[in-house]
Amino acid sequence: MGRAVKRVVYDERQIADKVKEMGAAITAAYPDGELLVLGLLKGSFIFLSDLVRQISRPLQVDFLVAASYGDKTFSSGTVRLLYDPETELEGKHILLVEDIVDTGRTLGRLMELLSDRRPRSLEICALLHKHIATDLKHPTKFVGFDAPNEFLVGYGLDHAENFRHIPYIASLQ
Ligand code: IMP
Ligand code: MG
Known about the structure:
Layout: E1 5-10, H1 12-29, E2 35-41, H2 45-52, E3 60-68, H3 71-76, E4 79-83, E5 93-101, H4 105-115, E6 121-129, E7 142-146, E8 152-153, E9 169-172
Parallel strand pairs: 2-3, 2-5, 5-6, 6-7
Antiparallel strand pairs: 1-9, 3-4, 8-9
Helix pairs in contact: 1-2
Bound molecules: inosinic acid (IMP) and magnesium ion.
The site of inosinic acid (IMP) has 14 residues, from β5, α4 and β8.
């Protein structure tokens, strides 16, 4: 078997309270216009499903699947879309939802790709932020937790595709 969970970093109660708070902040931040919540798969799937249920305004949901061409290309910042949202982006408020911001490279490239689609606005929402991002030109407007610089799993986050289903966020052994 692989690695084991070391310590609970954010429990279910803390996550639920935080997501509720973030939903309220997002509701307040977008008074008018169409809102499209774009989840970056796979890591955001649990966070996104809880988050949209805490946003009290009309919205649409779609997803993005991004892939890099292996580690070397990844560090040069090249990202390719494996699934491109079918929903029209032009003229809408786009909220890109990410599980965790680490170096911010994935997001940096995605933001360029998405701004080419002429959205009305384009912002990032991340449940966790390690605040070690050096490449991120675009600040993360909505952040849940300032995460410790440890490898975290659970609530959608994986290690080699495992642990995504764990209902809390933990660090690995
Ligand atoms: P970045 O481009 O370096 O910001 O990488 C962000 C992506 O790396 C996230 O969407 C996660 O999929 C993954 N990642 C970064 N840190 C962690 C972690 O602590 N646990 C699990 N996945 C992580
Ligand atoms: Mg991942």
